[in-house]
Amino acid sequence: MKLTILGGGGFRVPLVYGALLGDHAEGRVSRVTLYDTDADRLTAVARVLAEQAAGIDDAPVVVATGDLDEALRGADFVFSAIRVGGLEGRAADERVALDEGVLGQETVGAGGIAYGLRTVPVATDLARRIARLAPDAWVINFTNPAGLVTEAMARYLGDRVIGICDSPVGLGRRIARVLGADPDRARIDYVGLNHLGWVRGLWVEGRDELPRLLADPALLGSFEEGRLFGSEWLRSLGAIPNEYLHYYYFNREAVRAYQDAEQTRGAFLREQQEGFYARMKDPAAPPLATWDRTRAEREATYMAENRDVAGAGEREESDLESGGYEQVALALMRAVARNERTSLILDVRNRGTLPELDADAVVEVPCLVDANGAHPVAADPLPYHAVGLVTAVKAVERAVLEAAESGSRAAAVRAFALHPLVDSVSVARRLVEGYTRVHPGLAYLGRS
Ligand code: G6P
Ligand code: MN
């Protein structure tokens, strides 16, 4: 199998490659093509992969290229993991929103809309190109905002593009663990959009164990989301939200904490990664320490930096096992390539799963995956509070898609103004002004 990674110079590519190195079964990925627009980043990451592959006989062959067409031809799988505008762009997405007093975050609220407006045109071009050059390839979208970007690509790739996120599976596993259940045997009832979903049940041998968790403050206090939201609120809600819902349920606290922080998350990561890429440019640089440790440290810093708002503290080391984007992506590839039927929470077209949304709306729901792709499984109706958020945010995403397609500034203003975390149309107008000023990639938005 041939895998092409768009955004092949990205910081997380070694994690993906590490996961591939652990797969020795028939039908595994034997060739990885890295494509990136930045030659230095590509060289740096190719060098790390060579280090990882040293001494492993069946390590997948790695090819790096700056030629997109060459990268796509003959691909069985394409991972789309691009970051339009880089981390500098992300930092600006965060900063402009925070200066206007609203949430500045990579995927949620105003920051996420700005990122979507910048990314959708590029992702759409890639989708068209893939449809032409690799029409049979399966495309796994890692690019955030993952639900929105997957929907944009699905207009050209149909059900051949599948979006992924590690947060639902991570949450499900943490809940299973505190309940003493085997995470691999529990069925998680999780529904919503990407970074906007709720665990409503955890079924083990025909029994829903979630009520037992909700009734027990000690158990609720023993895992990350339990501490983040607090047992009282979770009991009242009757579900466990994805950690990103913290930005909705505790919006003021989150905005204030981000405004008080010395740096935005994007600015922090930029500094950190600049150091890495600079080091890798030096041919005499020593080999990296094991990538897994680097990752654990990164994740721990992330939790400490960003989630302390509600005293959530650091993510425990054990939470990092078997989660992660790379594991979800590998499980998905295996299921499709080898027809190994499995169940995964993925971003796919709705097709009636949530009756409030139309068939083409990309949702994040449990799916059965096999050689024919990912098929969403039937879900119980959403409670009204969730219907409200999910339909409002889907309306925002549709306005982003409209703006990206037509260049309409009015549609861009509508996207910001309709978001539940943007509290005034005037703020939305100023956000569009502010973002078009700092992002050259938004020059396509016209005057009306
Ligand atoms: C979670 C989310 C991802 C996000 C990641 C890292 O895993 O599901 O979508 O990319 O966090 O966020 P960071 O702030 O480290 O870039
Ligand atoms: Mn995610």
Automatic annotation (TrEMBL):
Keywords: Glycosidase, Hydrolase, Manganese, Metal-binding, NAD. Its EC number is 3.2.1.86. Its cofactor is NAD(+). Pfam families: Glyco_hydro_4 (PF02056), Glyco_hydro_4C (PF11975). It is an enzyme of class 3 (hydrolase). Residues 190-422 form the Glycosyl hydrolase family 4 C-terminal domain. One of its GO terms (molecular function) is 6-phospho-beta-glucosidase activity. InterPro entries: GlycHydrolase_4_CS, Glyco_hydro_4, Glyco_hydro_4_C, Lactate_DH/Glyco_Ohase_4_C, NAD(P)-bd_dom_sf. Binds 1 NAD(+) per subunit. Belongs to the glycosyl hydrolase 4 family. This is 6-phospho-beta-glucosidase. The lineage of its organism: Bacteria, Bacillati, Actinomycetota, Actinomycetes, Kitasatosporales.
